Amino acid sequence: MNRRTWAEPFKIKMVEPLRMMSPQERERAARAAGYNTFLLKSEEVYIDLLTDSGTSAMSDRQWAGLMLGDEAYAGSANYYHLEEAVRGHYGYKHLIPTHQGRGAEHLLSRMLIKPGDVVPGNMYFTTTRAHQELAGARFVDVICDEAHDPLDESPFKGNVDVTKLRALIDRVGAKKIPYLCLQCCVNMAGGQPISLENIRATSELCHAHGIRVMLDATRAVENAYFIQQREPGCSRRSIRDILLETCSYTDGCTNSAKKDCLVNIGGFLCVNDDELAEEARNLVVLFEGLHTYGGLAGRDMEAMAIGIGESVQQDHIRARIGQVEYLGDLLHRAGVPIIRPVGGHGVFIDAARFLPHVPRDQFPAQALAAALYVDSGVRAMERGGVSAGRNPDTGQNIFPALELVRLTIPRRVYTQAHMDVTAESVISLFKEPERVVGLRFTSEPKYLRFFQARFEPVEGEGVLRSVARAASGVGV
Questions:
Q1: Alpha helices (runs of H) in 90-175, residue ranges in sequence order
Q2: Among 188, 305, 364, 471, which residue's CB has the most CB atoms within a 10 Å radius?
């Protein structure tokens, strides 16, 4: 029997009009933004695939929950609803809400890291590493080698290489490692998941040496779906059950609730240790807000509590991952080089292979993201040399193995037709890659430069050459 096509498990009852600008208008907007898609105005964007962080559509139940916001400064009823939802789905003993994920990362780094420490993890994430380094630590990547190969089809390319981790512990000593940062659906690797078997083995090794394991649970629900679909013995298990087991091997988590939890703002830190929880509650008062709101309105916490319950529903997560896979399949069939297998929250284009004529020091991923916007109004983002930053010792640009453009799909926002439009634009550029011009910095912030840096084309006046002049390499 042929497998039937699936459809989104919801119907639309409110719409937001979109406006398509002309190519000339988009080129002017890109130039004004310094060819950095983060600096574009939202009203200038047609299809916004910059990030899935805080960009999801909330359900009718979540919108209704906003009306139940208890805005008491202390002891809001919504905090206790959220606490119950987190304990029931993630399993941790203590909850400390924060305004978003990086608030939790800040608290964790401040509590656990001493200058000179080493924090291993399965590939860095930008804000996480920044907080670790500001606290005085050095991040060490212990992800499996397969993660750095865009052509490798391994099902769990987010796995920790236990041999690398053991060697690091032997080299620096367990006392120098305050915790291991374990990321689900590893973002910089293309949204690649980690298996339950690997989580268990990693946890056993760390705990045998007295090292905490702290989970970046931002996309743990999506990771649970991949475990359900790919790991032997898990196909009949519920997403909630797999999520609880995932968290059970760790000592706490940071979570940007703006992703899996289906809200526009919010995050949380969870720990099982009583003393650590008291310290976190004391610090959150300094940097976020009282420990029962952590920088959030009561209505935000209520929407988050409801969103957590919705996030583990099978129909939701199947459709969410399915839309990402749909776009990935369109591009893959057209020969566009992407990270395989397709990850959970977006399709990652291998910009280095897409634009072989653009050298790494002209930032091909940044150039391709800008060119995609000018071509169609689709906003994507760079995940390569610009995001990696500079070596703190030498000041030289870091060029990671993967130079990627991320097409990040917000949850419950766009239709398959929007994915078709996106694919058509990417494919048209792929057929004429020589049209794309490399970029150089005109302004470079000290921290997390990819958010606010500005660029200019290395030649000509725009990031896209005209078709007529592309072959000669002459800029428009």
A1: 101-112, 126-134, 162-172
A2: 364
CATH 3.90.1150.10 fits domain 23-52+314-470 = yes
> Which DSSP state fits 338?
B
Give the strand pairing for 47-48 and 378-379: parallel
From 90, 125, 156, 363, the catalytic residue: 125
Quickly list DSSP for 397-444: BP--S--EEEEE--TT---HHHHHHHHHHHHHHHHSGGGBPPEEEEE-
Q: Is 126 a catalytic residue?
A: yes
Q: Check if 287 is active-site.
A: no
Which sign, positive or negative, has the C-alpha torsion 251, 119, 264, 380?
negative
Count other Cβ atoms within 10 Å, centred on residue 160. Answer: 29
Active-site residue identified among 10, 60, 61, 73: 73
> Is the domain defined by 60-311 classed in CATH 3.40.640.10?
yes
Six token digits for residue 392: 């703190």
Along the chain (476 residues), what's the average pLDDT of each consecutive run of 10 residues?
A: 74 92 96 98 98 97 98 98 98 98 97 98 92 96 96 97 98 98 95 98 98 98 98 98 98 98 98 98 97 97 98 97 97 98 96 97 97 98 94 92 96 97 98 97 94 96 72 34
Q: Specify whether 430 is catalytic.
A: no
Same fold, 23-52+314-470 and 60-311: no
Domains of the chain by residue range: 23-52+314-470, 60-311
Strands (E), 159-302: 179-183, 212-216, 252-256, 267-271
Considering the candidates 37, 51, 98, 126, report the single residue annotated as catalytic.
126
Take residue 10 and report the two structure tokens written for it: 């919801």
Q: Could you tell me the end-to-end alpha-carbon distance of the chain, in angstroms, rounded to an integer?
A: 54
Question: How many other C-beta atoms are found inside a 10 Å radius of the C-beta of residue 2?
Answer: 4
Active-site annotation holds for 450: yes
Q: Rounded to whole angstroms, what are the CA distances from 176 to 13, 109, 128, 213, 464?
A: 54, 14, 18, 14, 49
The Cα 41–Cα 443 span in angstroms is 19
Active site residue 216: yes
Asked if 13 is an active-site residue, the reply is no
DSSP 7: -
Q: In b/e form, how buried is each residue of 14-31, taking b as 16+ CB within 10 angstroms?
A: eeeeeeeeeeeebbebbb
User: What's the pTM?
Assistant: 0.93
Considering Cα of 379, then 383, then 385, then 390, what sign does the dihedral take? positive
Q: Is 80 a catalytic residue?
A: no
